[in-house]
Every structure is written in structure tokens, then in C-alpha cells.
Amino acid sequence: MIGKDRAPCEKDRHQMPYIEAVLLESMRCHCAGPILLPRATTHDITFQNYFIPKDTFILVNMWSAMKDEEQWPEPEKFRPERFIDENNRLININHPAMMPFSVGKRACTGEQIAKVQLFLILVSLFQKFEFHFANGWTPKDLRGQPGFTLRPPICQYQASVR
């Protein structure tokens, strides 16, 4: 582990699977863009026994996919362990319902750099601070408010230097 004496680097990601699992579960629970930008079919298509005619307006609901009980047991619970196996290795990284950066040809081109940056920022914050809710406050709901993007819930945090 890296301790407090040096800044984290990208190479540390592979040695810290639980932090990666926390990031994956955070993205699953709180996708920034719950509905993808609109798309339209360019030709008639049948998808999972549904006929979709050419020029049909389509919206992809990522929020629904990442909260689907058939895909994720207890989807409303924050459980990073769903991305870790018994040998402390990452699993479910390519789960078909895990799409915080979208999928396919129109997936976010910045996905890899974003994941590295999220890791570096989270580890840097955890190295230097301890976080907790302020003054014994407890949240009623941490799901956030859906809209064009997902707004975080109103919370009262406190950080103390480690």
C-alpha cells in the first residue's frame, strides 16, 4: 500500500481493488447522466423480440439499467463487494448493465482518463482526510435528484485532517 508518504499513481490501481470497487459502485449508484442523449434508428431493427422501425427516437435509461434488480441484487444498497471476488480481485467490470460512460460507438472517449483521475483524487483525499457526516446528522436519502444530470443530495459533511 502507499500509505501517506507519497502521492498515488496510476500503477497503484491494480494493487487497490477495493478502491476500484468503491468507484465502480459509486458510478453504478449515482450515474452522472441518467438518460443518454437521444438517438434514432437508421434502419428497421428487431431488438430482443421488439420491432423498432427506421427513424424511431430512442432514449437509453442508464439509471434503470444500473438499478435493475435482475442485474444487481439489492440495487439500492451501496455494496462495493459486488465488484470483488473471494480472492480480492475485481469482477463484473464488463457487466452488461454497468454503463456509466455509455456503451458502443458513442461511449465516452474520456472513460479511461476519467477512471484514473477518479482513483487518484479519491485516494489523495482518503490519504489526507477523514470524512463523516457533520454534527451527528444522518441522511434520509443519498440517491440524489435525477434530471439531465444527477444532482447529489444535500448533505452535511465534515472533514478532519489525518
Automatic annotation (TrEMBL):
Cofactor(s) in the UniProt record: heme
Top-level taxon: Eukaryota
UniProt keyword annotation of ATP-binding present: no
Binding site for heme: 108
Gene3D superfamilies: Cytochrome P450
Single GO MF annotation: iron ion binding
Keywords (A to Z) from UniProt: Heme, Iron, Metal-binding, Monooxygenase, Oxidoreductase
Ribosomal protein as UniProt keyword: no
Pfam families hit by this protein: p450
SUPFAM superfamilies: Cytochrome P450
Family: Belongs to the cytochrome P450 family.
Name this protein carries in UniProt: Uncharacterized protein
Organism, scientific name: Adineta ricciae
